[in-house]
Amino acid sequence: MNLDNLQHVFEPKLVTEMQQFGTWQSFKEGDLIMDYGKYIRMMPVILKGTVKVLRMDENGNEILLYYLSSNESCSMAYSCCVEAKKSEVRAIAEDDVELIAIPHVKLDDWLCQYTSWRNYIMRGFNERFIELLKSIESIAFHKLDDRLVAYLKDKQRLTGSSVIKASHYLIADELATSRVVISRLLKQLENSKKIILYRNEIKLLPSFV
Amino acid sequence: MNLDNLQHVFEPKLVTEMQQFGTWQSFKEGDLIMDYGKYIRMMPVILKGTVKVLRMDENGNEILLYYLSSNESCSMAYSCCVEAKKSEVRAIAEDDVELIAIPHVKLDDWLCQYTSWRNYIMRGFNERFIELLKSIESIAFHKLDDRLVAYLKDKQRLTGSSVIKASHYLIADELATSRVVISRLLKQLENSKKIILYRNEIKLLPSFV
DNA sequence: TTTGCTTTGTAACCTTTGTTACAAAATGGT
DNA sequence: ACCATTTTGTAACAAAGGTTACAAAGCAAA
Q: Which residues contact A191 (CB under 8 A, 6 or more apart)?
């Protein structure tokens, strides 16, 4: 397995340990990486690709928590992992994903031994916090049209492409609204020459930024 | 300082260390415990009382993050503290508060040394996560009237009293809406005999539950 | 008691978002 | 080419929430 990218984040000795004790896994687009109720025994560190993390509430509403990409890991997993709890989240591969799964017995050891690991974990918690806070702010204070624009920009940044592949239905789902509303707002954006709509595809024009 | 309650959470040796290295602090209702932009060098562990934690976004909107009560601590503080960053949150004493402030140099040491501390920190992160998720779910999927009812029940649980002391304006603020809207909804609840309204006071009737 | 400030009540109106219903277009398999 | 399925467009309407404006009530200090 290729852990070159990790060298920039962790000290060499830790990378060697990760190689030794971790399990390399790969997933194809759409694959289910983690699901509700499954026991978590490993903590994932993403090497390549993007992972979408979702959560369902008591009423069956599913909500997008955040996206994880290279060198990030699922903070929610950590404490679940240590306490051998069941997953409260679902993780899906957005594109082709490679990750290295760290067995839970190593988590605590490394926390003591390696400053880089400790910082990595703590920074992860913090970043995830900030993401959730932004999410709250977005829902609480911004109207749907702004949120939609932010959503599209996010996708653009994440995929590195100005062509976003998604159906209106999917977008509606992730913004917790209905398809008709999204179609309406997208059409407004198209009319103001900021995007062009195709089937399953949205092209962001220069004037979009 | 009286750290009896901590005995139930931490091993005796750690409690002794907390006594030795921590700083005992007390605050009166309304006191500012932590504010935006101040450097965080200590991590608070609440001994008594309730702390309200807020955050402000780029547009100056302030949002309620969560309440902390006995034996809880501010997860947001942790990583800030370790990296000696400025606070992104404001913390206000809801009632009379006692806390013990742990100097940041001890945080990492204890993480290695004491399993109870490690679990405490990790569980804290997790609980805060869950709170934020609930908050997101509430805003995203529930209408204001439901959220208002949930808010009142929360206050009731937190204070242990069926009489909630708060102006409509304050409630509106914490639910990120306008005073008129809250007055309207409260009046509906009063009309359906679930609450009685007074000035700066709301009495929850038995039928409210 | 008078004055000024805060809190609450209420009406009227506007904007945003959600819902239902139906049609048209695109796509993929046979 | 034909059919079933998915995706998108649009209209018409309903509901929730936000805004403005003003009045009345409560409270506190002078």
A: none
Nearest CA in chain A to B61: A141
| C1' of C18 to CA of A64 (Å) | 20
The residues that bridge with B90 in the sheet, in sequence order, are B54
Amino acid letter, B184? R
pLDDT tens digit sequence for B181-208: 999 999 999 999 999 999 999 999 998 8
Model's pTM, two decimal places? 0.88
A132 and B137 within 8 Å at the Cβ level: the answer is no
Tell me which residue of A169, A158, A166 sits closest to A203, measured CA to CA.
A166
d(CA B89, CA B84): 14
Count the neighbouring beta carbons within 10 Å of the beta carbon of residue B182.
23
Write out pLDDT tens, residues B128-178.
888 888 899 999 999 999 999 999 999 999 888 999 999 999 999 999 999
Residue A194 burial class via C-beta count within 10 angstroms: exposed 0-12, middle 13-18, buried 19 and up: middle
* Residues comprising chain A, all counted: 209
Residue A76: which of B61, B80, B129 has the nearest Cβ? B129
The span from the CA of B46 to the CA of B51, in Å, is: 8
Say if the Cβ atoms of A111 and B125 lie within 8 Å: no
As a whole number of angstroms, the distance between CA A34 and CA A4 comes to 25
Confirm whether any atom of chain D, the nucleic acid strand, is less than 7 Å from CB of A192: no
List the B199 CA – D27 C1' distance (angstroms): 10
